[in-house]
Amino acid sequence: MESTYFRRGFGLKAEIEGQLTTDYHSAVVEAMRARQHRLDVGPLSFRLAREFGFCYGVDRAVDYAYETRRKFPDRPLYLVGEIIHNPHVNQKLRDMGVRFLVRSEDGDFDFSGLGPEDVVIMPAFGVTMGDFDRLRTIGCVLVDTTCGSVLNVWKRVESYARDGYTAIIHGKHYHEETKATASQVMKYPGGRYLVVLNMAEARIVCDFIEHGGDVAALAARFARAVSPGFDFERDLQRVGIANQTTMLSGESLAIADEIRRSMERRYGSGTVAEHFRSFDTICSATQERQDAVLALIQEPLDVMVVVGGYNSSNTCHLAALVHSKGVRIYHIEDAEGVDPLAGTIRHQPIGTKHEVTSAGWLGDGRVIGITAGASTPNNKVGETIARICALAGVAEELRAQTG
């Protein structure tokens, strides 16, 4: 009988290596790595963060998607949402004939056209329990690329639900990873979750834990961020903390500490273990990229460019982290955001959800920091540097240095 669920790859890495190199390799990035992550081109001096771009989980998901196309060359191939939050990578998959499944108006993915002969890839951030069960019922061949760090969070929130604790998740309730994580608590009768976006929302919850308050107002504020039938008076008596793996680690830890102290004030320090559990579920790659960008901006920089999808949580948090330290920062979705001919940059200002174009952005800047989110391939980092060099009129010198 044919297996219909795959999670460990197909052993085709050697067969796809050439295509991966063609699609994502960068000679510029390799040259910078060989030169201590620095590159001087004419008057420009580039500084590349020590940790940037594709993480292990993203590498694995992209490899597995390419292997899947090679394994099933003649079968319809679908992807639930996006493999990762990077437009370039997702377009490469479309070019390979992968069809993207999208959410319908009611918020659910439309699986109505799928049948047992179809192959369906689940993305790096996973899918909800409901979506997984629906796909298994259809009988599709399922290829699961869910990141191991995400699976660790799932185990944590599942243990909270099993032991009668509400999972408080620091994350974005609309993000695919958080949706998938929250669904894990529903494996158990009475499983509950509450998603808080930031410290401000966490403090609202803490105030209710300590003092009570207007339940209706709280329910309205968190209407889309709680499990069905959530009872704020009942379900905040015992809580366990988890987070979307790509959030700012410092904020996640601070939120956990804030909630723990509220529980101590409400129930007493001697019994806090009965009411509060916590575990740092920020993935190591996210932490490493945040640490690396903080180390980079200790050097004098004229400007910092962060490359990655606008809907990539870890990329947006890298950009916000740099901005919070007072460094001039531009978050671009793709290398094409830098227009050498017009001298402009198309970017998303920190804290907004809209794109703007800025002229004269480089100014007299000569020292340029570069980093990229965990879903950004190396070629987009290299292309960004090449475009900045073209803007400054030193493209030929870059080519001479990097081949």
User: What gyration radius follows from the Cα positions, in whole Å?
Assistant: 23 Å
Could you say what the CATH topology of the largest domain is called?
Cobalt-precorrin-4 Transmethylase, domain 1
Largest sheet: 5 strands, parallel
Instruction: Tell me the count of domains.
Output: 3
Q: Which structural class is indicated by helix and strand composition?
A: alpha/beta
Query: Any idea of the CATH class of the largest domain?
Result: Alpha Beta
CATH superfamily of the largest domain: 4-hydroxy-3-methylbut-2-enyl diphosphate reductase, catalytic domain
Terminal CA distance reads: 51 Å
Average pLDDT: 95
Contiguous low-pLDDT stretches (5 residues minimum) are none
The coarse silhouette is globular
Strand neighbour order, sheet with most strands? 1-7-6-4-5
Brief overview:
This protein has 403 residues and is α/β, with parallel strands linked by helices.
Produce the secondary structure layout:
Blueprint: E1 5-6, H1 13-24, H2 27-34, E2 38-41, E3 44-48, H3 56-71, E4 77-80, H4 87-95, E5 99-101, E6 119-122, H5 129-138, E7 141-144, H6 148-162, E8 166-170, H7 176-184, E9 193-196, H8 199-211, H9 215-221, H10 232-235, E10 239-243, H11 249-267, E11 276-278, H12 284-296, E12 303-307, H13 313-324, E13 329-332, E14 338-339, E15 344-347, E16 356-359, E17 367-372, H14 378-391, H15 395-402
Parallel strand pairs: 1-7, 3-17, 4-5, 4-6, 6-7, 8-9, 8-10, 10-11, 12-13, 12-17
Antiparallel strand pairs: 2-3, 14-15, 15-16
